Each structure stands twice: as structure tokens, then as C-alpha cells.
Amino acid sequence: MIQTDSRELATAETATKPYAGNPIRRVLDAIGVQNISLIIALVLLCAIIGSQNSNFFLISNVKTIGTTVAIVGILAVVQTVVMLLGGLDISVGSAAGLTSVISAMVFMSAKSAALGIAVALVVGVAVGLLNGIVIVYGRVNAVIATLATYAGLRGLANLISNGRAQGYTGTDSTFTFLARGSLGGIPILVWVLIIIALAVHLMLRYTDIGRNIFAIGGNPTAARLAGINLNRYVVGCYVLVGLVAAVAGVLLTARTGSGQPTSGSQGLELQSITAAALGGVALQGGKGGISGTVLAVILLGVLQNGLTILGVNSFWQDIAQGALLIVAVVIQQRRRGVRAYGLPR
Amino acid sequence: MQLTGAGAQVTAPRLRAETISKAFSGVQALSEVSLDVRAGEVLALMGENGAGKSTLLRVLSGDHQPDSGRLILDGAAVSFATPAEAHRAGLRVIQQEPEIVPHVSVAENVYLGELPRRGRVVNKRALFAQVRTDLERYGFAQALDPATLGADLSPAQRQMVEILRALASPVRVIAFDEPTSSLADHEVAALFDLIRRLRDDGVAIIYVSHRMPEIFTIADRVAVLRDGRFVGERSIAVTDTDELVRMMVGRDLSEIFVRTPRSTVDAGEGDVPVLELRELETDDVHGINLRVRAGEVVGIGGLMGAGRSELAHAVVGDLPIRSGYVAVSGKQLRLRSPADALRAGIGFAPEERKAQALLLRRSIRDNISLAILARLSRARIVRRGEERDIARNFVRQLSIRTPSIEQEVGNLSGGNQQKVVLARWLARRPKVLILDEPTRGVDVGAKAEIYSIINQLAEEGMALLVISSELPELLGLSDRVLVMQEGRITGELSRGEATEEGVLALAMADDLSTTGESA
Among B359, B407, B412, whose Cβ lies nearest the Cβ of A222? Predict the structure, then answer.
């Protein structure tokens, strides 16, 4: 329809950089700078740890790393989704603790693993719904809203469990299968991570839902004016996080053999946020992906495992993790070209 | 050049701007503007929206550095890297919407950054005493309590705080950027008293305004800018409104408009308009009635702040409607969100394309397909091949200059970004398309292309509502022009009868009789 007879413009060309047709360059572009740096860091880290202690490369140790990162991994995956949306969920650890206790308590009273798991998942969805509704309809900042549920859910978990581990699931076939079973040589815990990560990855990458999540995080005004229902997406994403937090709670119960109100779930929020930030998810939303997050989860798992193998005090591991989060975000801000005055946003 | 005006004396200019040029990403905002202002005179600076007035003030205030040209203050060349340097030199610009810290008092706002202290402790008593003296001296004592919190100030009081800030240190040149746009009549009178007092004290004053009666009340001389160029200056005694309006708009309508006016004669009441607004009331606009028929381009003119963008946001469900209604093809809509408007067939390309329309860090493809993702998806999976075809197609049709559809939109020039926004709506094919300032910040070549796209859409039967502050554009594109002022439609002009003077007269039809002494 529109003719291209219009005059040529000198100004238009200046803004775009020429694109080299170099195939290696194109492959690297497809993987992304962020992921390449993570892979390099991972290789270096493995080399350093492996040179200090050759047990690091044993299959059994690799499996250990896999099972340790599975729970934080699935949380990091869904944390990535809310962060892409421009939000944050600090309550994931508490929600996992609460659902862990509930799954064990329901299992003990009903003598049914399936019922225990089902109730835990329903509670997880309810927690997500609460977060989403408070954020959307209460017009509360996501950090504050989930900070409140972070405290509240932890309290609730301690209240119903009297602050003690609940029940014993170590003899139940379903729970032991989740904790120690394996399929094709790969632990079930790792399968859960693979399935959830892959499902979320495909959703983000190939569906209109994923596109809209990126759009909302990138420019909420533009997304709204393009007819996207922001409220539905925000609530939906927090429900997804709640559901996956419940899965994490169930896995926690399975691994430890009992429902744990705080132990094992404390700190999962920090770890999941660190992984997502390290994986290149912009704190402002709209940028990032699951592959980066998963790589970062593995990196963090290897680091933790390595430090343990090398006999480093576990308190140092917390310090290392805090430092890593700051480094990751500082690098991110630098690359975004944030001007160095005023308050960070 | 001749001198008139109460306080003017035959001396060297206090401030001289020499051949100032400034461009923003290829758009020439100022080209070789030269201007004098003398001590003890009020120089009015006039021009249409986008004529370069604000840019010139930003250069004076040190916000922007000119690409070429220089400023001469009392005979010495000066250059300001930051607003602070301009302040120190005695050059102040009173912003239209001053930055006020909401949770501290007027007194602290005035002396922000220079609070009187005893050691590290703020000396509140000295501070308040100082501010009271200032208020007394400039005649604001009745109007402003130094203890009021910033958040509680009226627009007029905010202006006063800004003026007090400016006068807290010795000032040689003071510029007001449309200071009366948010003031009530008696506040305008008080402001004029202050301006006269400053003038009589020998301060050089630059006064930017759209309002003709004000200019004739307060100014000694008038300088006119148009398209970033200095058009001319007149002594207030020898000019009149007509001449000034001609200077502001007087240009040949360029040949860049290709609009074929809608030929169909108004088919009368039986012809159902595609878009109809009836007695629409929102917080910002009042009693709006308008209809846009298929194939028609209706323009909305008016000054900034007249409520045009707010009207557009209400029509697309982005701002609440208090009463009245919006109808599409005769069907009344219940609008709760832009999604509702879109379902009914109303598309909207907002004014701030970077802030409101584009995903700057996503690709051209992502941006074009944003409003049609549901349509492009089967079982929620976006059909990428088709998406790419659509994006490529529009990149070609609209001649968007880019190496690839995967290019990040943030890397494109303004004109190409705007074309991406248009492509999004062309892909969606709404019945009604509302365009708010469709060519702002776009170079002339891209403008012509955007005009031809708009023309094409109208010919294909789309109903278009175009908001524009550029009069040639408004007149060149529109079949009818509606003019808004202060939230109301003040007049309608058909394509035949619409002139730039006519639109400006309706946009500025200002009742300033209570303060206006002449004109």
C-alpha cells in the first residue's frame, strides 16, 4: 500500500549498527553474553575445585549437587517469571516451609501421601492468590506485600507445627520415591527441576502468555494500551509461584522425612533471587530468561558444594552468596548504562 | 532596533544569545537564534509549541549546552555546564512546574541546599526569619506561610517558592516559562506586580507565554521563534495580535501533505459515525461531543495542557469516564481498561512513544506483533513464521530503516520508532485509530511518510482522530479540526475554513479581562 518512493534519509541509518554475518558471532549472539559468562565462570569454578579435590568429579557428587539445587532451582525458575514481570516474591521460602508442614501433617492424619501433596498444592495456590490480590487490588509494592507474607507464612507454619518438625514420611513409598528415586539414572528431584524449567521456558519463549509477560515487565503502560490485562497476569504469575513453592515444600518434606516449618526453607528466597539476578534477569523486569537462571542455579550449587568439599565454614558460604548477589546486580546496572547519580530504581 | 518600555535604557544588552544552535538526535530544535535582553526590560518570547522556546530556556539555564553559538552576559562570554553554574552567574529560569520537596516546609524548600546552620544543626529560627523577610520584600507575605509543607502548596504558591529560590541570590536575568498557565487571575496580577518590581530593579526578564493579552500587559518587546529560528522582534507599542500570530505561524504549508480530503458529502443523520463521544465528562475534560466517520480524519488542536491527551486516554479506557459515553459504530461501550476499547476496535498510539508505546529492549518484530499476539496464536503458541512475515511486510511497506526485524527498537531513530508504533496498529486494523502527536520528534522525511500512511488508512475506511500541536500538520491532515481549551471543545473548523490563525484564536481565546490592561 504505502509506496517506498519517499526520499532517502541519512539520519535513519545512523542509529542502527551493521550486523556481521559471521556464523560464530551469530551462535554466540544466540547464546547471549550473559550465558557465556556464566558458562565460563562455571568451567573455571569446576577446574579450581576439581584441582583441589578430585572427588568433586565423582558421579555421586554430581548427583548430590543435582539434588541439592533442585529445590532452589524450581523456585529460581518461577522467581524469574515474577521478576520478568517487574515484581519480586520474597515469600517463596516461607510458603515452602508452610506447605512442607501441611503436607506432612495431612499425610499423618489421612495416611495418604497423595492427599497430603494435594492439600499442600492447594495451599500454595492460595498463598499465591493472596500475594497477587494484595499487590494488584491493594496497590501494594510487590517487595512489601511479599515481605509481609514472608513473615506471616513463617509464623503460620511455626504456629500449626509448634515450631517442630512434623510427622515421618520416611517409610512412605511416594515420598521416598520423590526424595531418592531415579529414572534413567537421573534423580527424581532433578527430573522435577528439568520438567518445571522446561515448561516455563517453553511458555516464556513460545506462547503469547510469555510474550505478554516480557511486554508487561518491559513497559507496563505500553502493554496496557496494547490491550493486555495486567492484573490477570500479575495474579496469575504469583499463583504460579505459590504452586511451585508448594512443590518445593513437598520435596522438602520428602528429602528430610518430615514437615519442616523453617529448617531447609529459610534462605530459599535469597537464593532464588540471587540465582535469577545472576542469570541476567533485570530487576526492572522485561529482560532475562530461564536458561540464564538455570545456569546460575548450577553455578551456585557447585560453589556451595565446592566450599563444603574444601571444608570452608558454612557461614562463609552465606557471605559469599550475599557478595555474589551484589556483584551480579552491579554488573547488570553497569551494562544497562545506569547513570551514577540519584537513587537506584 | 528601537527601544521602548518603561524601564528600558539605551545600554548594552544584559544578556545576548548569539547564533545558538541545538539539535536532538537529528532534529534541529534551534538554528542560529540570536536574541538580546536588556537590564530593566521585559522581553516576551513567543512561538508555537515546538518552536524552540523551551529549548532556548534550557540553554540559558544550563540544562542543555548549545551545539554552536554563545551566550554573552554583561559583555563577557559565558558557558554553563550545569544549572548550578547558571545560577551562580545570576541567570535563573522559573520552571513551569517547579520541583518542590513535598514533605518539608516552604522555608526549607526555598533554601534547599543552602540551609543556615549552626555547626551541623539547621538553624530553623534564622531560616524562618530569612524567609519571612523575603516574603515581605517580594509581596508574598499574605499568600505564603513559610511553615506550609511542600505537598500542600497550590500551583501559584509553588511558583512563588521557585521565584524566592531564584531571588535568594543576586539575579541578573530571570526567565519565566509560561508562569500563568496554572494561576488564577488575582495570582496573575500579583505575579505581574512582582515582575514589574524586578524590572524596575534592573533585572532583565524573559517572559514566555502563549497568552496574547498578558504579553500586551507586561512585555516591552516581543521576540518570535518559529521552527527553531528567530523570526523577528517587535516593540510592543508598534505591534498587534494579528501581526504576532502571523509571525508565529506564517509559513507556506509545505508540499509534504498528500492528504486526499474525504470526498463523501456528509450523509446526514443516517450516517452512523464509527466513533462517537457524547457529553463525555472525565476529571480533565468536560462536555465533549464528537463524531468520526469511516474514512475521516478529525484533528484535535489546542495548546499543551488543553486536555487533548487526557481525552484520548479516556476514550481508550485508560482514564475513568464520569458521565457521557463512547460509542463505536453506534454501540455504546463500557470501558474499564484499554483491553475493552481494543475489543471494540479502538487503537491508540500515545504521545510519549518511548514511555507509553514501545518495548525499547525488544525487537521490532515483538513490538509490531504486541497487539495481535492472541490472533497470531494457535493453542497459545505464537506462530513465529507468520509473525515474521507480518513484521517483514510492515518494515517494507513503511520503509522502516533497519538491518533486520530482530533489531532492538531502542536502537532505531525517532521516525522509525514511530513507524513501528504505527505498524503495530496497522497489523491490528482497528476501526478507529487515535494518534497523539504522531510526528513528535520525527524528522521531516519520516513525517511525510507518516502522513502518507495516515492518508492511506483513511482512504481504506479507517476512522482517525489525530491530536497535534503542529498547526500545519493538523490543517494538512484533517477533514475537520476541533479545538480544545481547558478541557472543552471551543470550536470546530471544516477543512475549508480552518486556518492556523483560526485554530490559534480558538486555542488561546482567553478571558484575561480582569488583569489585562491593554490589547
Answer: B359
Closest in A8, A19, A206 to B382, CB measured: A206
Cβ A240 vs Cβ A148: under 8 Å: no
| B324: three-class secondary structure by DSSP | strand
* Sheet order of strands, B463-467 included: B346-349, B432-436, B463-467, B297-302, B480-485, B488-494
Q: Which CATH architecture has domain B29-100+155-160+170-249?
A: 3-Layer(aba) Sandwich (3.40)
| CA A265 – CA A102 distance, rounded (Å) | 14
Q: Compute the distance between CA of residue A243 and CA of residue A238 in angstroms, rounded to an integer.
A: 9
Beta carbons of B337 and A229 less than 8 Å apart: yes
B375 CA to chain A: closest CA distance, Å?
10
Cα–Cα distance between A60 and A49 in angstroms, integer?
A: 16
Residue B400 C-alpha, separation from nearest chain A C-alpha, in angstroms: 9
Q: Which residue has the cell 534477569?
A: A281
pLDDT digits (tens, 9 = 90+) for B372-421: 999 999 999 999 999 999 999 999 988 888 888 998 898 887 788 999 99
Spatial distance between the Cα atoms of A228 and A223, rounded to a whole number of angstroms:
6
Q: What is the pLDDT of residues A242-276, one digit of tens each?
A: 999 999 999 999 999 999 998 888 889 999 999 99
Are A226 and B371 within 8 A, CB to CB?
yes
- Grouping H, G, I as helix, E, B as strand and the rest as coil, residue B359 is coil
Domain boundaries, chain B: 29-100+155-160+170-249, 102-152, 268-508
Indicate the CATH number of B268-508 among 3.40.50.10330, 3.30.360.10, 3.40.50.1820, 3.40.50.300: 3.40.50.300
Q: Which residue of B has its CA nearest to A228?
A: B339
Q: State the CB neighbour count (10 A cutoff) for residue A55.
A: 11
ipTM for the predicted complex: 0.82
Torsion angle of C-alpha atoms B183, B187, B189, B194, degrees rounded to 10: -100
For the stretch B343-356, pLDDT in tens is 999 999 998 888 89
What does the angle CA A147 – CA A149 – CA A153 come to, to the nearest 5 degrees?
130
Counting residues of chain B whose pLDDT is more than 70, the rounded percentage is 89
If interface means Cβ-Cβ distance under 8 Å, which residues of chain A face chain B? 1-4, 6-9, 11-19, 206-209, 211-212, 214-215, 218-219, 221-229, 286-287
